[in-house]
User: Fold this.
Amino acid sequence: MKLFLTDRRNTSTHLVKIAMIFLLSLGSLGIVVGSFLLWKASNNTDYTETITNTTRYGEIRQKIWSNKEQIKHFPQEIPEDATNLRLAYFPGFSQGGSYFQLRMKQSPEKIKKVLLKYREIAKHKYKGGNTNDHANLPKGVPTTFFYTSDVQESFPTTYEILVLDAENKGTPGFKWNHGDSYGVAIDSSASEIVYWAEAW
Assistant:
């Protein structure tokens, strides 16, 4: 009888020890995973916010934007004579696409010259509007929103949106679900140009 009680007590003690080890391990794992998720959330703000600081232009153009083909038409550096500079860069997050825009004002002569150059090589041309307007036109392609504007998401009709290229990476029946496009938007009357690239 004593032997039976001792074995039962030893078994109970072993079960309690195993349960304690399991619970401590689970708690430790929870702390490690929770700490990692908190760290990731607190450090992710740089990656999910739009960068508007024009001093970061070179870094974004040279190092961060991965597909150099999409931004080869952007200037290597911001021209010294450029004014009214605006930058909008978003790296994309989860299902959201990425975009990069540089807006500047230059002399009417320079704007006229680049307008003629890009009009000649543009694959699609639009007057004002935004990506939704353009994609919904017959044979239209997605373009961009006016991210570098303070007041609106569409380009005024004074802007010519010149698409240098657009690639549909969607699936049959779900056109433009994924893809990219890039080009320039030029307002001759305001002597402004917006270089843009989008990927989604």
